Amino acid sequence: LTLSRIEARRGELPIVPQQLRPILAEALASAADLAHERGQSFELRCKRGLMAPVNPEALSTIVSNLVMNACHYTPEGGAITVSVALLESEVRIDVVDDGIGIDPAHHQRIFERFYRVDTARSRQLGGTVLGLAIVKHIMNRDGGRLDIASVLGKGSTFTARFPAPDAAPNPSPNPSQIPR
User: Fold this and answer.
1) Each residue's pLDDT tens digit, 85-109
2) 142 to 66, 67, 73, 92, 136: CA distances (angstroms)
3) Is 14 exposed, middle or buried (0-12, 13-18, 19+ CB in 10 A)?
4) Which of 17, 36, 101, 114 could serve as a FRET partner for 77 with CA atoms 20 to 30 Å apart?
5) In contact, 164 and 87? CB cutoff 8 Å
6) Whole-model pTM?
7) Could you give the maximum distance between any two Cα atoms of the chain, in Å?
8) What are the tens digits of pLDDT across the range 108-159?
């Protein structure tokens, strides 16, 4: 249903300058609680007063899905960091964990609906296996890009890139970027 709503609301969610830290803090509250329960360190790195053109609902959905996945796939005692930067042509949000990592063979498919890298482990964690598909759809709808860098046993970095206003189009993607 969420994916259908995203597809149906194309262009209906306004993108306006917003302070990012309050939106992110609210979106990450549940993940921060889960990280605390699991003994994981959790950090949000976003300058106070940082403004960027975003849709708060879309940004919340994107970041909360990425961070909840990081919490679920990072062992107890691990670390999760969300870093935000406003660059010349984009807003960049990195979700970094030192969890189990994802084999590069799966990088192109993990954003597909219902795709599981490890069915046995995923079933233990529950969930619909739609979070990353939802993130991808929102990013595509809003002209953004989602990148992944991951090494088995070392962790993952998911990078959400949103175009800044009047930004030039991004150059063609490198092989580690997720196709639209």
Assistant:
1) 988 889 999 999 999 998 888 777 6
2) 17, 20, 27, 14, 10
3) exposed
4) 114
5) yes
6) 0.79
7) 46
8) 767 666 556 654 444 444 444 567 888 888 888 778 899 999 999 999 999 9
